[in-house]
UniProtKB/TrEMBL annotation:
One of its GO terms (molecular function) is thioredoxin peroxidase activity. Thiol-specific peroxidase that catalyzes the reduction of hydrogen peroxide and organic hydroperoxides to water and alcohols, respectively. Plays a role in cell protection against oxidative stress by detoxifying peroxides and as sensor of hydrogen peroxide-mediated signaling events. CDD domains: PRX_BCP. GO terms for biological process: cell redox homeostasis; cellular response to oxidative stress. Pfam families: AhpC-TSA (PF00578). It comes from the Bacteria. The gene is bcp_2. This is Thioredoxin-dependent peroxiredoxin Bcp. It comes from Pasteurella canis. GO terms for cellular component: cytoplasm. Keywords: Antioxidant, Disulfide bond, Oxidoreductase, Peroxidase, Redox-active center.
């Protein structure tokens, strides 16, 4: 896994967003030893603005949730790249490959 210092050298700040409460996110961050900031968006306001809150299906059940999508946003606030094709295990490499191409 790419460590935080390497992302910093590339000028990348990583932020995650979740509909969970700050308390739940703090426990998750500690349990998984995340190396990035995870922000709470309990009312889905930010997720909806980015178009990542919507209908999902799992095991035949339909519900609303966050679609796992990542955005690379430049220093001016413009979306430079949208990453939709990745797995949790290779996400860092997909982004790194894009940044170093």
């Amino acid at each position: 896994m790419i460590v935080r210092q390497n992302w910093k050298k590339l000028g990348v700040v990583i932020l995650g967003i979740s509909p969970d409460s700050p308390e739940k996110l703090a426990k998750f961050t500690d349990k998984k030893a995340l190396n990035f900031l995870l922000l709470a968006d309990q009312d889905h306001q930010v997720a909806e603005q980015f178009g990542v809150w919507g209908e999902k299906t799992f095991l035949g059940k339909t519900y609303h949730g966050i679609h796992r999508i990542s955005f690379l946003i430049d220093e001016k606030g413009k979306i430079e790249q949208v990453f939709t094709q990745f797995k949790t295990s290779n996400h860092h490499q997909v982004v790194l490959d894009y940044l170093t191409k």
